[in-house]
Amino acid sequence: MFAGHIPVWKKAPFIRFLLPFMSGILVQWHLQMPVKIVWLILLSALIVLFIHFFLYDHARYKFGITNGMAVAILFFSLGCLLTWLRDIRNNDDWYGKYYKAGDIVKVVLQEPPIQKINSYKALATIATVAGRNKIYSTKGDVIVYFQRDSTLSLDYGSQIIFSKPLQEIKNAGNPGGFDYKRYSLFQDITHQVFLKQGDFIALNKKKQNFFGKILFPVRKKVLSIMRSYIHGEKEYGLAEALLIGYKDDLDKNLVQSYTNTGVVHIIAISGMHIALIYWLLALLCRPLRKIKYSKWFVAAIIISGLWLFSLLAGAQASVIRSAVMFTCIVTGENFSRKASIYNTLAASAFILLCYDPFWLWDVGFQLSYAAVLSIVIFMKPIYNWFYIKNKILDFIWKLNAVSIAAQLLTTPFSIYHFHQFPNSFLLSNCVAVPLSCIIVLAEILLCVISFIPFFAVFAGKILSWLIGLMNLYIERIEALPFSLWNGMQINILQAVLLMITVMGFGYWLLEKRKAGVWAWLLSLLFFMALRSVSFYQSIQQQKIIVYNVPKHQAVDIINGRNYYFIGDTDLAINDFIINFHLNPSRVLHRVKSTDRLSNLLRQGSFLEYNFKKILIIDTDNFFDTVIDKIPIDLFIISKRPKLNLFSLSGIFNVKQIVFDASVPFWKIKYWIKDCDSLHIPYYNVSEKGAFVMNLN
């Protein structure tokens, strides 16, 4: 990127298009501009470019800046337009524009139902909505949960009809929590429904497309081979993820171990897997290259193989990115042109974002491009730090150089999204990466020889041993002291500043330009200043948070960098709830657990903190522990106590009532009427998300 004296935008002209295009995507999503304004901007840019095209040469040169601005505006507006079109809510056929509770809908399953703990889950497309007077052909997806029943005989392409009301997908609304509603919307999913036996009617006719009809049976066959010949739940679960990206059988604790050691990228189908398939296809096609005029035929075989594997692996953003990039490389080779890797990266990103602008928010997309760009920029300078004659040691150092290089630009993304840094990434990558490559190739071999049971059993035993060895190594690395630096919190501006710091340092390292030093130092200084401000704010914070954890009581009282937890004891052993609902907030607020807060007074259900009086009721017997006729700043109702708010209003002067997520809906509905009659403000955590109250 920085080598030589030719500016990067001249070596990679696609960057000029990509940056305004990405800006248009971001602006359109956040501002939601009317499509008429977007079309007006786009047509204005086209008119300017059209006029510029017919100018004389000296006039073109004179208005060159205008032409450049028009091109940037054109791609900016194109990004806005494609984002507007991609949003399913803007589609005239979106079912949300016609559906009303009680309407009969017909859905088509887009995948075989996947078994979960208490249900089956499947993605489905709503094909029709039958209202009172008309049947509408519609578009848009819905998540369907089926009651756990051994008699469920649905598959990919099955059509069912039902009238059970669809439920809009909502976020839990906890501070720092994952935006599941946006994540689902980006995949055209806005609603979900739970169906019991008898809630739906399955139609006899299936609706399948050509690729699905081929790929799902092949995928099912591969999974059957993995489960038949690879022994151990952890082993075959990881084998399925490594080969075709199937993650439903993965052990959650094992995935966390791979994440904590910095090698979770080998589980996600990505560039490494596509590179292996490319190498294997190129090797198999080598004899064909000797045939005259076979160049494009071989290229077609390789490209077809890459894309078939990409579709088989679930067509994730990271694997599609790699498939697009290798397609560009193969095509360029056949034109006898060696394109700039930066231009190839920018072109592939542009193509992918044209197909789906929402991939810009995909973590895999971000990490994938950051890793490749970082390797391209920094790998050679890092590798040149040492000259090693021994080929084996040199290979090991090259692997480490790649790992270090990839980590430089991916670190800001990792900290921003996952709030941790794997200190042991070198130890884990130098073994896991080459070993996983061997395992993937061995899995392909197992699929090829699976029709010969003797050889398949032997290959399966070797694979089980290799995967078990890799798992054991990763778990041992994770257990090392200080292997993980977690609880890190940065906002998006700080992440951008970190990236500018790394890029500025790289520019100075390779080009020895002062501009790189200034960019590096100023961005680092600004980053440290923002960090200092955020740490000061966290020291001063005092608040109470009532979390939205379905069917559970969970309350944090925060004082500076500490929190005091009040809630169900079983939450302490439920890793999913802690990591999904509670930890994001605690990382956001930079707090750690404490058994007591210095200015917190607690007597049974009654708490006093910073002169704020809080009452938490979760049982019927609470009158013995409270002092009557006092003002209550916050009244938290939890679980199923027998309460009469009219009676309580004669004892307490309540300023705010909060119903937490453990309270049944029917009780809340009953109490809300009392709140309205008593003119007491109320807050329903289950509907509105976590309740946060400052106590300063």
Q: How are the secondary structure elements laid out?
A:
Layout: H1 8-11, H2 14-31, H3 35-53, H4 57-62, H5 64-86, E1 104-109, E2 114-115, E3 119-130, E4 135-137, E5 141-147, E6 159-162, E7 167-168, H6 180-185, E8 189-195, E9 200-202, H7 210-229, H8 233-244, H9 252-260, H10 271-284, H11 295-312, H12 317-334, H13 341-355, H14 363-383, H15 391-418, E10 420-422, H16 425-448, H17 453-478, E11 484-486, H18 492-511, H19 514-540, E12 542-546, E13 554-559, E14 562-567, H20 575-588, E15 592-593, E16 600-603, E17 606-609, E18 612-617, E19 630-632, E20 634-637, H21 645-649, E21 652-654, E22 657-659, H22 665-678, E23 682-684, H23 685-688, E24 691-694
Parallel strand pairs: 5-8, 14-15, 18-20, 19-21, 20-22, 22-23
Antiparallel strand pairs: 1-3, 1-6, 2-3, 3-4, 3-5, 6-9, 7-8, 10-11, 12-13, 12-24, 13-14, 16-17, 17-18
Helix pairs in contact: 2-5, 2-13, 3-5, 7-8, 8-17, 9-17, 10-11, 10-12, 11-12, 12-13, 14-15, 15-16, 15-18, 16-17, 18-19
